[in-house]
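Ticket #393: bound-state structure for zinc ion.
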Amino acid sequence: MSYTEQIFCLKTEQIHQQITNIRNLVNRFNDYQQLRSFIQLISDELENSTKIIEQKKSEMTDFDILISKKDHIPRRIKEIFSKIMDTLGNQETRLMKMEQILSQMSIWESQRKGTSILSNKHKALEKFGNEMCNVMKITTPVISNFGTEFRSIPCESFTFHLAGYITNLPETIANQIDGWPILAHELGHVYHHENYAQIKENINNPLELQIRKLGIPKEDADEMIDIWNGHWIPELVSDVIATLILGPAYVEKVVVDAFGMAPTEFSPPPDSHPPWKIRVDLILEVIRKLNLTDYEIHEKMFLWKEYKEIFAEKIDPKVLNLFINGQTVQKASDLITSSIQIAPIKNIWENVLAIKNGSSIENHSMLDLISMYFLENDLEKRSVLERAISAKC
Ligand SMILES: [Zn+2]
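RESOLUTION: The complex was predicted; output attached.
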């Protein structure tokens, strides 16, 4: 057996193992239809592929043709797989790519093998994510993965073009309800991706026009457009979406955390995120406009203004004049707030206030309970809500 064949066999073995893991995973999460159908399709298809690989490993040449001619493969999966096959040069790379996706799934599974409380929390977080996907009308399948960093990864980065999204939250965050609002931001990226054509037309294009009219050198304008449209707009759209979905819960998490960070700082451009000054100003503006009864935002706005002033003198003049110049920031904020029209928190706010005023927490949705959790200052009541949230899985 040649060296390539040995590697090949080993990888096939691993794929078998992964498929078994996925099957177990799928069986354990019967309730999560969206997730289940996504994993099921991939898992079935990988099983088929593995069979073909087994048959074909001694005569590797017509693997591509076989895959693309198989008629019983669902159309969508066929598309996904033919894309992979198109872009990957040799069989080993193809298997490697499959493994990348499988390993995401196995991480997802293994991290649910902890204690039962941990596992319930994760399932509850999953449910919370599902409720948010529903209110955002997200149709792309989303896999939540608990790892080490915050990320929202379109599966196209794994050549699974438009097949789904993997949102990644740090394990420590996943275990603490206090960190959960960040998931709303990560799902906001999925919303941005799904609605990109409209966002480009309503936000990116007019912003680009406005930047071109600033009368700055072309190079600077190009750089600004790259940063705004490539990085900052997706982040700000995600912030606005998260604020509209969670309201105070997002504000209490993100804005309160931002008080510990320099508001205008960003590492040398192009940076992936806008400085906190821009993000928090926008989030506060959105929540102020929602005008939710019994939620006081003006004091936070006042404190934030004071906080920004402490740092005001230290801003790099190039940054001030270009990337965070008032005209562009204002234009971007206006375009984003006028283009995104959803406001789910408005729809559930009465339920949240009902819990606040003593209604039983029994029949409330995850979104109601989490919104209330972030309004509650009483530690004992918070832990009652936390138990109710963990039990909702
Ligand atoms: Zn983001």
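RESOLUTION NOTES: The chain has a mean pLDDT of 72.
TICKET STATUS: resolved
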